[in-house]
Structures are given as structure tokens and as C-alpha cells.
Design goal:
By secondary structure, the chain is mostly helical. Helices cover 75% and strands 0% of the residues. The longest helix is centred in the first third of the chain and has 15 residues. The termini are far apart.
């Protein structure tokens, strides 16, 4: 795990708690400029992200990638 992935995971969780949809967060330039699509998929498999977003939202987000 890289520091970048850690920061992106924290960003996704924080923005989700603020009420933003997951697909919108994953399309942010902050995310897309720092992660490849493969890294984003790996990010969605992180336990803290799964816990914060819920498995159903993560599964939907993965299917939209």
C-alpha cells in the first residue's frame, strides 16, 4: 500500500460521509490524477473503505468503472 492510496482512501471516505455519491467522488480530478483504474479498484477492496461505504455501494461503484 502506498501513501497515495492511503490518502485517496481517506479522501473517498471523508467525501462519502459529507454526502457525495461514490461515483462522483471517484471521478474527481484529485482521484483520477493520482490513481489508475486498477488502483481505484484495489482502493475499493480496502477494509476501511468497504466498512465506510458499505459493500453494496462498493459493488455498484466497481461495476461502473
Amino acid at each position: 500500500r502506498s501513501r497515495t492510496e492511503e490518502r485517496i482512501a481517506q479522501y473517498v471516505i471523508r467525501e462519502h460521509h459529507r454526502g457525495r455519491p461514490v461515483h462522483e467522488i471517484l471521478e474527481d480530478h484529485y482521484v483520477t490524477n493520482r490513481c489508475t483504474p486498477e488502483q481505484i479498484k484495489r482502493l475499493l477492496d480496502r477494509p476501511e473503505v468497504l466498512h465506510a461505504l458499505g459493500e453494496d455501494l462498493v459493488a455498484r461503484a466497481k461495476s461502473e468503472l
